């Protein structure tokens, strides 16, 4: 090779190395500077509720961690769809996220005209936590086991009522899933909130309720209502003596409330990774764990891929349950 050829080769190699160095530096700078402005958490639930409290505690932790304000905006209405559509329509710049829960999976089947779809318009960023419901019954039924309740409900098809806090809520879907597994035919009764549901349960106006655990803990300590089973895959640390539906004769039964973070598809992966890692650090803090525990929520240990797979399974499960109660309505 001539001297000129060697010089050309060296210059070419140097140029390639320089380009690679500049590219790597640019990536590092981009990763190091995000976030450069405040971040928004969009929430489809009202202020003061369990998901709102968790979201605001998480926002405070991330504000401190990332050095930028994290603002929670409550956009209620349309069973959470307004919040979902807001995030799906936001700039894909990594500064707007959805704090989503069960309705995100349910609404794809519940509202056929909903244009936003998980995987196509939204992607998972991080799981935050999960919790089970507890099946409680009014004392006057005089049943103290799940088997006794099933026997009672089977003997009265269409004659046993259970409270819900809305169509497609976890309290509703838990009952629909139970009917499918246990061969019962209960009647859902919708309430505006848990307080009204508990009042009517204790007053004998409704027979049962797949309640959020914190909403009935005080009543359970007083001896009424009666807790028969929890709906998650394992026993609740809040009610360790109460068996799960699954271990009480219905293996595989699993209806949980869950909370996680989502972003519009197209948000840079590096930005989502920064947020995901910050959430991971927040989840091991004492104040975050305390906030979750007060709402009866267990911190999640799912990775982003695992959470994505979990949400996809929830969407498929919801299709079956929504089809079931829509059929029952007719």
General description of the model:
By secondary structure, the protein is an alpha/beta fold. It has 2 domains: 165 residues, 3-Layer(aba) Sandwich (D-Maltodextrin-Binding Protein, domain 2), CATH 3.40.190.150; 122 residues, Periplasmic binding protein-like II (D-Maltodextrin-Binding Protein, domain 2). The chain is 47% helix and 18% strand. The protein contains 11 helices and 10 strands. Strands 1, 2, 3, 4, 5, 6, 7, 8, 9 and 10 form a 10-stranded mixed β-sheet that branches. Strand 1, helix 2 and strand 2 form a beta-alpha-beta unit. Helix 2 runs antiparallel to helix 10 and helix 4 packs across helix 11. The longest helix has 31 residues. It is globular and about 65 Å long. The chain starts with a helix and ends with a helix. About 8% of the residues have low confidence.
Helix share, percent: 40-55%
Q: Pairing-aware structural class of the strands and helices? A: alpha/beta
Per CATH, the superfamily of the largest domain is Bordetella uptake gene, domain 1
Q: Identify the CATH architecture of the largest domain.
A: 3-Layer(aba) Sandwich
- The span between the termini is 85 Å
Q: Tally the helices: what do you get?
A: 11
> Given the C-alpha coordinates, what overall shape results?
globular
Strand content: 15-25%
State the gist of this model.
This protein is of the alpha/beta class and 330 residues long. The protein folds into two domains: 37-131 and 256-325, Bordetella uptake gene, domain 1 (D-Maltodextrin-Binding Protein, domain 2), CATH 3.40.190.150; 134-255, Periplasmic binding protein-like II (D-Maltodextrin-Binding Protein, domain 2, 3-Layer(aba) Sandwich). The protein has helices at residues 3-33, 50-66, 81-88, 102-110, 146-154, 170-182, 194-202, 213-221, 269-283, 286-294, 304-329; strands at 39-43, 70-74, 96-101, 122-137, 161-164, 187-190, 208-212, 226-230, 256-264, 298-299.
